[in-house]
Each structure stands twice: as C-alpha cells, then as structure tokens.
Amino acid sequence: MGAACSSGKEQLVDQPKQVAATKPADAPAKPAAVPAAATSDPPKASADQAASSTPQPAATAGEQSAGPKPLKVFLIFYSTYGHILKLAETYKEALEKEEGVEVAIYQVPEILSPEVLEKMHAPPKSAHPVIDPHTLDQADAFVFGFPTRFGMMASQMKSFFDATGVLWQKGALHGKPASMFTSTASQGGGQETTIMTAVTQLAHHGMIFVPAGYAAGGVMFGVDEAKGGSPWGAGTLAGADGSRQPSEAELEAARVQAKNFATVAKKLAA
C-alpha cells in the first residue's frame, strides 16, 4: 500500500512536467520572418552628402579674384628740416614692395606758428596729408617717425599722441604692432633714448612695439663713418646745423627694418 501510494505520488508529480513539455497539436505556426530590407526604410543621405549634391551658385568674378585682406599700415611722421621726411618716404617704398601690404603716409599737425618756423629757417611742409588721430583705428599696423628733442620725441608728435585719448578709452589700438625711427643732431643726441621713451605711448595703448634689432647687419656695425640708427629703430644724423642728409647706409637700415616689420605685422594680423 505504501509503495503503491508512493508510486502514485511520483506519477502525479511527474505529470505536470509531461504536460508542460507537450506542445499542443493545434498551436498556430509562427509566420515566416520578413526580410529586413522589405520592412525598413531606405538609408537616409547624410547632411554632408545632401549638401554636396545640391547645386551651388557659381562664384562671381570678384569672388574668384578676391585674395587675402591686405595689411593696412599707417606711416605717420613729423619732420622739421626734411630728414625724417626722407626716412619716411624710403620706409614707405620698402613696405610697398612687400606682398600684401598697403601703406598710407601722413604727417602730424604742426603746432609752431609760421613766424617761428621762418625764424628757424624750416623749409615748407611736404604735400602729404595731415593725419586725423580719430582715424587710427582704421589701420592694422603703424610706423612712427620723429626727430629728437633733448632725448625724447618732438612736441608735435607728443601732441598728436595726446589727442588719441578717445581711442585709448575704447582700447581701439590694443594689440596692433608699431615700429619707429628717428633723427638726431649727433650720435650721442638720443638715437636710442628718443625711441625708448616713446614706447610708453604704445604701452598705454596696448600696442606691440617691433624693434629693428640688428637685422641690417653690416651697415649697423661699421665704424668707418658716423651714422644714426640703433636696435630700437632706424635713424639718421642731421648735424649741428641740419645740413647733413641721410646716408645710404642709414636708408638701407630703414629698408631692412621696413621689410622685417612687414613680416612680423602680417603674422600678428593673421
């Protein structure tokens, strides 16, 4: 009896397993799988592919010929007896030979009266236009030329810088490169200090001073003749009576300075 009951329990326990394992005969068959290509949307073109396949309007002749924006340089000078004028025009010619450089030359306003200039035996002013200090923000780079007055820039150039206060308030000249050149009566008359003390004007505007260095090489090292110029910038000697004119060595140093300044200024403007 016990064995029979035990056998019956085992059959009852095993029965659900057999039922669960048995698949109904009338269970519907699974539908055949549909190929993915038949149910999925065709792949969409990427934005880049769509843009490349869209016809683009042909470039105009002006767009095809337009190149990089030229570096716009303002060369600003003051000259009493013509020495700085000569250096300025030489500097300008050298700058214009550099690719991608556009130069506008200006003189600063004269603050001495015609009567005083006549007593100083100063020649007439050049035909170059007078600079408006409020237009300086139109330039990308600057070159300033001025004679010395006791080791500092002439008051005419200082008066010009004094009129740039509005640009200083706006920070309009910040980060723009500038270079300088000068003239003195003698070698010890301020060839270095005239430019050195003028750099303060650039510093307050946040401008970048680009010195000449010794790029001119031999013309700066020779001691066989008196000449102006220093690592601070090109220069010339006028003589005690102003009769001496810039020598070829001094002009060559100005040309080299102009070439190197153009290279640096274009890099800064890029």
Automatic annotation (TrEMBL):
This is NAD(P)H dehydrogenase (quinone). InterPro entries: Flavodoxin/NO_synth (IPR008254), Flavoprotein-like_sf (IPR029039), Flavoprotein_WrbA-like (IPR010089), FMN_Rdtase-like_dom (IPR005025). It catalyses: a quinone + NADPH + H(+) = a quinol + NADP(+); a quinone + NADH + H(+) = a quinol + NAD(+). It holds the Pfam family FMN_red. Its EC number is 1.6.5.2. Belongs to the WrbA family. It is an enzyme of class 1 (oxidoreductase). It comes from the Eukaryota. GO terms for molecular function: FMN binding; NAD(P)H dehydrogenase (quinone) activity. Residues 19-61 have a biased composition (Low complexity). Residues 73-261 form the Flavodoxin-like domain. Gene3D superfamilies: 3.40.50.360. Residues 1-66 are annotated as: Disordered. It comes from Edaphochlamys debaryana. One of its GO terms (cellular component) is membrane.
